[in-house]
Specification:
TPR-like_helical_dom_sf, Rossmann fold, five-stranded mixed β-sheet, transmembrane, six-stranded mixed β-sheet, alpha/beta
Length: 863
C-alpha cells in the first residue's frame, strides 16, 4: 500500500511540476508514439481540459501542435468531419493569437494544406479554394517554393474535380518551367497538365505526349487508359486499365484512393456491360471505406459519413439494379450522403452546385417512377415522384426561411442572433471579395477577405452544432399530399409544378381531387418553342412587327406545356423550373386566333388568375400578416440624365393617394436611406433601374447615389409582406438548376420578403406607371396582391386611351406575382358607407313609426 502511495505521489508530483505548456506537448507526443482509438479518446479528453486552461501564446501554440497531429490521425482514419473541426479550431487559434509573430511553427504544412485537402474531399469547394489560395499567397510571401507548388497542385486537383479543366490547365502551365522544383512536384505538375489536356480533347494519343515525360510505365498506361476512355474505346481502355493494375502498389494507397480505384474499375465494367464484375468492384470499394461491411445488403445508413466517394458508389449501384425499389433505395443513400456533406457547408455557391448534381439523380428517380406508374397505375407513386422534384428545389431559400422562422419564434436567443449576425457578415465580405476580384486588387487584400470568410464559416459550423442540439426537433419543411389539397380547396386553385430536366420536362398537376404526372419530351422542337417565346420579349417591336408569329408561338407553347388540362380552374399556382422561370404564363393563348387586336386575344390571363412560387413549401407556408399596410417608396427618378424615369413621379402620386406611404424621391432615394428604413415597413416599393448582371457582375439595382448588388441584399433582414419591384429585369439573373435565377427578386426573398411583384424583362416607363397605378388602386380596396396584379393587367387591356400597339403583352406581361393567394378584403371606406346607410335606414324606420303617412301623431297623445 505504501509502495502504491509512493508511485501515485511520484506521478502526481511530476505532473504538478510540469507547466501547462509542457503537459500539452507531453500529451501530444504520447499520442504520436502510439496512435489508436483508445489513445485518441484520452487525447480528446485532455484537449477539452487544456482548452479551458490555455492563456499564454506558448500554451496556445502547444495546443495547435496537439490539434494538428490529432487532425492528421482523424483524416487517416476517415473521420473527416472531426478532422476538419480539429484543423479549423487549430487554425483559428493560430490566427486569433497571432502566433506567426511568436513562433516559426509551420502552420502551412501542419494545418492549412491538410485542411484544404479535407475540404476538397468533402465537397466544400468554396472553402477549399479559399484556403488553398491563402497558403499559396503565404508561401509566395515567405519564398517557400515547395509549399507554393503544393498549393498549385492541390488547387489544380480541385479545379479538375469540379470540371474546370481550362483553369487547371492555365494554373499548371504557369509552373511547368519553374526552376528548382523537386522531382516529385515537377512530375505531378506535368501529369496534372496532361490530365486536363486529355479531358479537353487536346491529346488524342499517347504518341502526342513526349516520351521524356513518361518517366515510368504506370503513367504511360494511365494516360493511355484516360485517352481511350475519353474517346469511347472501352475495350482498349480496359486493356490499359489492367496494365495500370499490374503497376499499382495497393499498399501505398490510402483507403480513399484505393476505394476510388475500385470504383473506377466498376464504372469501366458498367460501360462494357460487365455487370457482375462491376458489382464485385463496387463491393470492394465499399468494403475499403467501411471495413466492417462485407455486402451492400448489410449496410446501415448510420454507418455512412460525409465522403463524396460514397455518392459515386451508390449511384453506380443504382444503375446496376433491375428492381425499381432497389434502384430508388440506392439513390436515396446518395441523397443521404449528399445531405451529410452539405450539413458541413456554409457557402451558398457550394450548396447550389450540390443541388445541380442532385437534380440529375432526381430526374432519374422521377423517370423510374413515371415508367413504373405506366405499368401499375398506382397513384401513391405519383406523390413520391413529386417529392423527388421538390427535394432540390430552392433549397437555399428553404433553409433561409427555416432560420428566419426559428428566430421569429425565439427573438432573444443569443445563439440565433449570433448566427444571423454571422450570415450578414458573410454576405458583406462576399460582396467585398467579388468587388476586389473584379477590380484586380492586390493579392493581400483578397487573401485577407478569403481568410475572414473561412473564419466566419468555422464559427457558423460551430454555432450550427449548438443550435441543432438545442432545437433537436427542428426539421426541414415537410408536407403530405393532403396538406397541399386542403390548401388548394381553400384557395379554389390548382397547382402546376414543373421539373426541367436534361431529357424531359415533368409536369405535376395537383388539385383537391388528385395528382397527375405528365412527361414532356425536351426535344429540339420543345426547346425551340420555349426559346422562341422568351425571345419575343427581347424588345418592344418584336411582337408588333409580326403579330401572327406571336399568336402562333403563344398557342403552341400553351399546348406544349399541357395547360389545357387545367383550363377549368380560375386560380392557378405555377411553380416553374429552368427556362420556364422566364415565361410569362399569363401571356400564353388558350386557342388559335387570327385577330391582331390584343384586347380581343384569348390570353390565359383573361380566364385565369396566376400566381407563382419557387416551391410548394412556400405556397403552403403561412406567416403572420402585418395588417398595417404601411409602405416605403423609393423613387430615384434620375431626372436630367439619359436614364430619367419621369413617369415614376406619377406612380409616387398614386401611391401617396391610395396608401399609408413614406416616399423618398430623387436625391433622397439613396441606398443608405433604403437600408436604414427597409425593415420598418410592411410594403416596399422600388421604382428604379435594375440589371440582371452578366458573367462577371451579379444582378443589381440602382439608387440615387450608388448601386446595390445581389450579395448586399442577402445581408438584409426583412419582415416584409410585399415587395414591389417596378424596375427592369428584377426577375432575371444567372440561372442555377434547382435554385432558379440569381435575381434581385430572389435577393429580396432571401432577405425575408414573403410576397413579391417583379419584372421579367426591360419594361416601358409609361406602361409600368399605368399598371402600377391600377395595381395600387385595386390593392387599396381589396388588400390582395395577387388579385390586384391580375386586375391591373385586365384594366390595362380595357383602357381605351391606350393604343393597340401599346397593348402588346410586352407592355403588361412582364410583371409576375410570387406569393400566397389572398381573399379580397373590403376597404374601410366601403364599410363606413354601409354603416352610414344602415344608421340612416334605422332613423327612417323610427321616423315612420313616429308619424303616420297622413301626418297625424301615432302615439295616442293629444297635442
Amino acid at each position: 500500500m505504501k509502495k502504491l502511495s509512493f508511485i501515485f505521489f511520484l506521478i502526481y508530483g511530476t505532473a504538478l511540476s510540469q507547466n501547462l505548456e509542457e503537459r500539452i506537448y507531453v500529451a501530444a507526443e504520447t499520442f504520436i508514439e502510439n496512435p489508436n482509438n483508445t489513445s485518441l479518446n484520452l487525447l480528446s479528453q485532455q484537449e477539452s481540459a487544456f482548452k479551458k486552461q490555455v492563456k499564454s501564446k506558448g500554451e496556445q501554440l502547444a495546443l495547435v501542435f496537439l490539434q494538428s497531429h490529432k487532425g492528421f490521425y482523424l483524416e487517416q482514419n476517415t473521420q473527416l468531419k472531426e478532422a476538419i473541426i480539429t484543423f479549423e479550431d487549430a487554425l483559428n487559434r493560430f490566427k486569433t493569437n497571432e502566433l506567426s509573430e511568436f513562433s516559426d511553427f509551420d502552420i502551412l504544412e501542419s494545418c492549412l494544406i491538410p485542411l484544404g485537402n479535407l475540404y476538397t474531399k468533402t465537397g466544400d469547394y468554396t472553402n477549399a479554394e479559399n484556403i488553398i489560395k491563402q497558403y499559396i499567397f503565404l508561401a509566395k510571401k515567405s519564398n517557400r517554393l515547395k509549399h507554393q507548388v503544393s498549393g498549385a497542385i492541390n488547387l489544380s486537383i480541385l479545379y479538375q474535380t469540379i470540371g474546370k479543366h481550362e483553369t487547371a490547365l492555365k494554373l499548371t502551365s504557369s509552373y511547368l518551367n519553374k526552376q528548382n522544383l523537386n522531382k516529385y512536384q515537377k512530375q505531378k505538375i506535368i501529369q496534372l497538365h496532361i490530365d486536363s489536356q486529355i479531358a479537353l480533347n487536346l491529346i488524342s494519343s499517347v504518341a502526342d505526349i513526349p516520351k521524356t515525360i513518361h518517366k515510368n510505365t504506370y503513367n504511360q498506361h494511365r494516360n493511355n487508359y484516360q485517352i481511350q476512355l475519353q474517346k469511347g474505346n472501352y475495350v482498349e481502355a480496359l486493356k490499359a486499365f489492367n496494365k495500370v493494375k499490374t503497376q499499382l502498389s495497393k499498399d501505398s494507397l490510402s483507403r480513399r484512393k484505393l476505394a476510388k480505384f475500385y470504383l473506377e474499375e466498376a464504372q469501366l465494367c458498367k460501360l462494357l456491360n460487365k455487370l457482375s464484375e462491376g458489382k464485385k468492384c463496387l463491393n470492394l470499394a465499399l468494403q475499403t471505406l467501411l471495413p466492417n461491411i462485407k455486402y451492400i445488403e448489410q449496410l446501415n445508413k448510420n454507418s455512412l459519413y460525409a465522403e463524396n466517394t460514397f455518392i459515386d458508389i451508390f449511384d453506380l449501384y443504382a444503375t446496376l439494379q433491375e428492381d425499381h425499389k432497389l434502384t430508388l433505395s440506392y439513390y436515396d443513400l446518395s441523397f443521404y450522403v449528399s445531405q451529410l456533406l452539405e450539413d458541413n457547408w456554409t457557402s451558398q455557391e457550394n450548396k447550389i452546385s450540390n443541388q445541380a448534381a442532385n437534380r440529375i439523380r432526381s430526374e432519374k428517380c422521377i423517370d423510374i417512377i413515371f415508367n413504373e406508374y405506366q405499368n401499375t397505375k398506382n397513384n401513391a407513386l405519383l406523390f413520391s415522384a413529386f417529392q423527388y422534384a421538390e427535394l432540390n428545389k430552392s433549397g437555399i431559400l428553404k433553409e433561409r426561411s427555416l432560420k428566419k422562422m426559428l428566430l421569429q419564434q425565439h427573438p432573444n436567443d443569443s445563439l440565433l442572433l449570433q448566427e444571423a449576425h454571422l450570415f450578414k457578415e458573410q454576405e458583406e465580405i462576399t460582396h467585398l471579395l467579388i468587388n476586389e476580384q473584379l477590380g484586380k486588387s492586390q493579392a493581400s487584400v483578397i487573401t485577407t477577405l478569403s481568410s475572414n470568410l473561412n473564419t466566419i464559416s468555422t464559427k457558423l459550423k460551430t454555432l450550427k452544432e449548438a443550435i441543432n442540439k438545442k432545437y433537436s426537433n427542428l426539421k426541414d419543411p415537410n408536407f403530405l399530399i393532403d396538406d397541399i389539397q386542403i390548401q388548394l380547396l381553400k384557395d379554389k386553385a390548382v397547382l402546376v409544378e414543373y421539373f426541367y430536366g436534361k431529357k424531359n420536362i415533368y409536369q405535376f398537376i395537383i388539385s383537391s381531387d388528385g395528382i397527375e404526372l405528365n412527361k414532356i419530351s425536351l426535344d429540339e422542337a420543345t426547346k425551340k418553342s420555349i426559346a422562341d417565346f422568351i425571345h419575343l420579349f427581347d424588345n418592344a417591336s418584336t411582337i408588333n412587327n409580326d403579330i401572327s408569329k406571336f399568336t402562333n408561338s403563344a398557342f403552341k407553347l400553351y399546348n406544349a406545356l399541357n395547360l389545357s388540362k387545367i383550363s377549368r380552374f380560375e386560380n392557378v399556382i405555377i411553380i416553374p423550373d429552368g427556362l420556364l422561370n422566364f415565361i410569362p404564363f399569363e401571356a400564353l393563348l388558350t386557342s388559335k386566333t387570327n385577330t391582331t387586336n390584343f384586347s380581343k386575344m384569348p390570353f390565359v390571363m383573361q380566364k385565369q388568375s396566376i400566381a407563382y412560387n419557387t416551391s410548394t413549401v412556400f405556397y403552403l407556408k403561412k406567416e403572420k400578416k402585418n395588417n398595417a399596410n404601411n409602405l416605403l417608396g423609393i423613387f430615384p427618378v434620375f431626372e436630367k440624365t439619359k436614364n430619367s424615369l419621369i413617369y415614376s413621379i406619377d406612380e409616387a402620386k398614386v401611391i401617396k393617394e391610395e396608401m399609408d406611404a413614406t416616399l423618398f424621391l430623387k436625391d433622397q432615394a439613396t441606398k443608405k436611406t433604403f437600408i436604414k428604413n427597409s425593415s420598418n415597413y410592411n410594403i416596399i416599393h422600388l421604382s428604379t433601374h435594375a440589371s440582371s448582371g452578366d458573367f462577371s457582375i451579379t444582378a443589381n439595382i440602382e439608387f440615387a447615389e450608388e448601386t446595390m448588388f445581389l450579395n448586399e441584399l442577402y445581408s438584409l433582414h426583412l419582415n416584409t409582406d410585399l415587395v414591389v419591384l417596378s424596375a427592369c429585369e428584377t426577375g432575371i439573373g444567372k440561372l442555377y438548376k434547382g435554385e432558379g435565377p440569381m435575381s434581385i427578386a430572389r435577393g429580396f426573398q432571401y432577405a425575408g420578403a414573403q410576397n413579391l411583384l417583379f419584372s421579367l424583362w426591360q419594361i416601358n416607363d409609361l406602361s409600368t406607371s399605368k399598371i402600377m397605378k391600377s395595381f395600387y388602386k385595386n390593392y387599396s380596396n381589396n388588400k390582395s396582391a395577387n388579385i390586384s396584379n391580375h386586375q391591373s393587367k385586365l384594366d390595362y387591356l380595357k383602357d381605351d386611351t391606350i393604343s393597340n400597339i401599346k397593348k402588346s403583352p410586352y407592355y403588361w406581361g412582364a410583371f409576375v406575382y410570387y406569393g400566397e393567394l389572398t381573399e379580397p378584403v373590403n376597404d374601410n371606406k366601403l364599410i363606413y358607407v354601409f354603416i352610414s346607410l344602415f344608421i340612416l335606414l334605422i332613423i327612417l324606420l323610427l321616423l315612420s313609426r313616429i308619424k303616420k303617412p297622413n301626418g297625424k301623431d301615432t302615439t295616442g297623445i293629444s297635442p
